[in-house]
């Protein structure tokens, strides 16, 4: 026995021209209507509970009908609750209707006119400055932004609707709060592909040139920094990728329109890896990775020169790291070479005088044996380290230009003094250059 009254079904049937219905048909239709209504109400209650409400609204019913692929009702989208009146058309036959609001024409005519709407105008305001949204009336407040983040977006926002439509893919909320435009996404992808393209030098040069001059890349800075760190971490055996990531880093730092101070802490580790890494590249040539270390050293010097004022501990920390790799006897010659040229790039003359010159004689013992053994596979790298030491010491000569040089009578024991200062290998290399000013600068340091 159905709860639904069969007389209602008979009335609807007569209104559309069906004059007679079998009692069995009425009972079947009553049962089906009862099932359909309970199904709609169950779905509507789900929408109500998920909305954290205790009152069922017409919007919940409309969403339930849409979910069940039933054409929703129209004309009941009202924020005010509907008031139903009751009229009796006979014994036991109440009729419910929606009460219409009575309007007094006199009050309506005498009511004050609404304000004249303002003319349409356009004004400009800052949407974001250096990636930070200013708190002005034109921009949404932080509370509005947080509420907007919680609203599901996209065709898969409602999992039930997505399942019905067949696109039941799970949508993952992005980790970042801002969303890149399609143009910036395309630009980022093209630049990354161009920088790592080994076949087209022009394509690669154009991408780096754009990074050096384009003023609208503020939102892409964290993405490029993450890209650089990821490529250096996972491509230590690929010299081409490491070299191009250093060129990419240099292009970002050379862009005068970008504010990269907050990202220096994330940019320095990949540069240090390319400078003092133990094993870079997979080439059998022992000196293949040395040009990469030179690029990283120049980049590190540029970072210190540009950002040392904003970060007072940047230069001491970098100098400490490079000195550690320079003096550690367990490090390969490539790491020591990177430490030497890194110290030279970081502090110039003062760092060479304080950190490199007092340790040259002690370090010379590490490279003497490979240099004296012609069959040693480490001889080319030891020779490069010796050249780097002499090149770093030349900073002292540049600092003493214009002073009096040694006279012939004063230089009788200069070789002994120089060997005592920097060791026989470095002293011999310096004396071979035939530059008295250089010798005097080292002896006076």
Description:
With 445 residues, the chain is an all-alpha fold. It is 58% helix and 2% strand. The chain has a two-stranded antiparallel sheet with strand order 1-2. It starts with 5 loop residues before the first helix and ends with a helix. The model is unreliable at 405-409 (pLDDT under 50).
In short:
The chain is mostly helical and 445 residues long.
List the helices and strands and how they pair.
Elements: H1 6-15, H2 23-50, H3 58-67, E1 84-88, E2 94-98, H4 105-110, H5 142-150, H6 159-165, H7 182-195, H8 201-213, H9 221-234, H10 239-254, H11 264-276, H12 290-307, H13 314-327, H14 333-347, H15 349-356, H16 360-372, H17 379-399, H18 414-422, H19 424-432, H20 436-444
Antiparallel strand pairs: 1-2
Helix pairs in contact: 2-3, 7-8, 8-10, 9-10, 9-11, 10-11, 10-12, 11-12, 12-14, 13-14, 14-15, 14-17, 15-17, 16-17, 16-18, 17-20, 18-19
